[in-house]
């Protein structure tokens, strides 16, 4: 399993951002194999965690035309800066 960690400093989030984020989340889950997607904002910081079955799924998502357009819009309008980390999950533990 792969986790993609997106961290950003928010510049300005508007209604267009909220609409795009919802569409893209659903697209990732429905068409690219995303297993789970969670995003949180606190102050001007945003973090999103998405879980994927394999790296090929992540690369296909990265290259989706709507996702690429949103990335460009994010650079222009929504985020002051951002960082993306991709990591393999070697073990997972749960309670109960």
Please tell me the overall pLDDT: 94
Number of domains: 1
Biggest sheet: strands, sense, closure? 4 strands, antiparallel
Silhouette: globular
**How many strand segments?**
4
Q: Name the strands of the widest sheet in spatial order.
A: 2-3-1-4
Q: Radius of gyration, Cα only, in angstroms?
A: 14 Å
By CATH, the topology is: Alpha-Beta Plaits
Distance between the termini: 21 Å
Low confidence ranges: none
What sequence of helices (H) and strands (E) makes up the elements? EHEEHHE
CATH architecture: 2-Layer Sandwich
Q: Structural class from helices and strands?
A: alpha+beta
| CATH level 1 class label | Alpha Beta
The percentage of residues in β strands lies in 35-45%
Helix content: 40-55%
How many helices does DSSP assign? Answer: 3
